[in-house]
Design brief:
This protein is of the alpha/beta class. About 30% of the residues lie in helices and about 15% in strands. The protein is built from ten helices and eight strands. Strand 1, helix 4 and strand 2 form a beta-alpha-beta unit. Helix 6 crosses helix 7. About 10% of the residues have low confidence.
C-alpha cells in the first residue's frame, strides 16, 4: 500500500478535500485519540503544562490534550505547528464539539522550531515526523531536515522535559536515521513499540532533555510500572522506560572513556585536512549541503607564479 508521503509533500497532499476527509473519518479519529493518550502516558505529566504539538493537523490530538482532567494532571495548554494551511483551516472550522483550544502556527517543522529556549514543558508528535525523511528537492536532505527539527526541539524544551513522537518508519534504516538524529541533537532516546509484529504496531520515540523536573522531585525521584517509571530522578532515558516491555534503548552520548578521543577545534591546525573534515561534519549536523571529502581534500596547491 502506498504511503501518503510518497505521493506529494504534506502541504500539497493535505488540501481542503483531504483535510476534511482525514478529520471526519471515525477510524482515524479513534486511532489518533488512542495514540495521543499513549503519548500522554509516556510523558507522565503531573500538573498542567505547556505542550508543543508537532504536526498538529486539524487539532485531533490537541483536543485530547485540552480534555485531560485535573485528577490526571490537566488540563494542558498547547500550541500546534503544521505545514498544511488546509489542515489548520479545518481545525478552526471544526464544529464537532471538540473545538480547538490551542494556538495554531503555520510552519514547516523541517525548517526548525522557532521558539525561545526552554519555552515548553513537553512535546508530542503523532504520525508526523516520518514526513521529514522525504526530500522534495535537490537542495534539501532528510538528514538536514531531521537535524534542524531535533536541534530546534531540544532547545525549545526546558531541562527535565520529555517529548514523545509516534511515527511510521518505512523500514529499519529510516527508523535508525530518525533516532540517530535525535541522539545527535543531545536527547536521550528510547524506542517503544506497541503490538510488535502486527499490522497495528505503533512506534513511539521517547526523548528526554536531561536534568531533574519538579515532578520528579515531588515524587522523591522514584516510580514503578509501565509507562511512568522515573527511576532515581536523573531523567536519563533508561530511568524513563524502566519496566517497559519491548523497549530498545539508543543512547550513545555516554562514553566509557569519558572525553577521551574527543576532537576539539582548537587542537586542529586551521587549513589542515582534519580541520576541513571536522568543519564539514559540523556543517552537515547543521543541515547544510556539503560536498563529500576525497583524497584531494586539504591538499596543498602549488604556488602560482
Amino acid at each position: 500500500m502506498s504511503r501518503p508521503e510518497d505521493k506529494l509533500p504534506a502541504d500539497l497532499y493535505y488540501n481542503d478535500s483531504e483535510a476534511r476527509k482525514y478529520t471526519t473519518s471515525s477510524r482515524i479519529r479513534n486511532v489518533q485519540a488512542q495514540m495521543t493518550r499513549r503519548a500522554l502516558e509516556l510523558l507522565d505529566l503531573q500538573s498542567p503544562s505547556l505542550i508543543l504539538d508537532l504536526g498538529c493537523g486539524s487539532g485531533l490530538s490537541g483536543a485530547i490534550l485540552s480534555a485531560v482532567p485535573a485528577s490526571e494532571g490537566g488540563p494542558h495548554t498547547w500550541l500546534g505547528m503544521d505545514v498544511s494551511s488546509s489542515m489548520l483551516s479545518t481545525a478552526l472550522e471544526r464544529d464537532d464539539g471538540d473545538g480547538v483550544e490551542g494556538d495554531l502556527m503555520l510552519a514547516d517543522i523541517g525548517q526548525g522550531i522557532p521558539f525561545r529556549p526552554g519555552t515548553f514543558d513537553a512535546a508530542v508528535s503523532i504520525s508526523a515526523i516520518q514526513w521529514l525523511c522525504n526530500a522534495d528537492s535537490s537542495d534539501v536532505s532528510p538528514q538536514g531536515r531531521l537535524a534542524r527539527f531535533f536541534n530546534g526541539l531540544y532547545a525549545s524544551l526546558r531541562r527535565g522535559a520529555r517529548a514523545v513522537c509516534q511515527f511510521y518508519p518505512r523500514n529499519d534504516a529510516q527508523r535508525k536515521m530518525i533516532s540517530n538524529a535525535a541522539i545527535k541533537a543531545g536527547f536521550g532516546a528510547g524506542i517503544l513499540e506497541d503490538d510488535p509484529g502486527t499490522k497495528n504496531a505503533k512506534i513511539y520515540l521517547v526523548l528526554t532533555v536531561g536534568g531533574t523536573s519538579s515532578a520528579d522531585q515531588g515524587r522523591g525521584g522514584t516510580g514503578s510500572g509501565s509507562g511512568n517509571a522515573i527511576g532515581n530522578g536523573t531523567r536519563d532515558i533508561t530511568d524513563v522506560v524502566h519496566g517497559m516491555d519491548d523497549v530498545d534503548i539508543l543512547d550513545r552520548r555516554k562514553n566509557a572513556s569519558g572525553n577521551a578521543g574527543l576532537i576539539r577545534p582548537k587542537d586542529l591546525k586551521k587549513g589542515s585536512k582534519r580541520w576541513i573534515v571536522h568543519k564539514k561534519e559540523r556543517m552537515e549536523r547543521q543541515g547544510k549541503i556539503v560536498k563529500q571529502s576525497s583524497k584531494y581534500t586539504g591538499r596543498k596547491r602549488r604556488p602560482v607564479w
